[in-house]
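Spend some time on this chain, tokens included, and walk me through the fold:

. . .
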Amino acid sequence: MTDSELLATAFEEAKVGLSEGGIPIGAVLVRDGDIIARGHNRRVQNNDPLEHAEINCLRNAGRIGSFRGLTLVSTLMPCYLCAGAAVQFRLTRVIAGESQNFAGARKFMESQGIEVVDLDNRECIDMMARFIRENSELWHEDIGL
């Protein structure tokens, strides 16, 4: 699958999160071009401040032995929490749908040897911008402001 196709799957996860009353961020975990896990932000739904999309996705992967060499795809540039998980599990690559609405921890991940790709995807940008505009208090809570 291409990066754009993988992002489309993460975007579908983000829409699921939004439909559940949560924050519209989705993620997929990829090995050799195949999706092995998916997830979305469930912080609101589960009353869990750590249940970001990327963390949910990694949890859904379960015990797969090693995460080395895998790619994490997220609709939004990962925050420091999720970037730390990517570093901890030695992921090779992180693909973000966008970083205009939230810059995230790109430099941190790159400093740890992770290749970071920002697709600057218009659908991801528009969905997050709309959500932030309509739910600013919830968004600020999610990112710790």
The chain has a mean pLDDT of 96. Strands lie at 26-31, 34-40, 71-74, 93-96, 115-118.
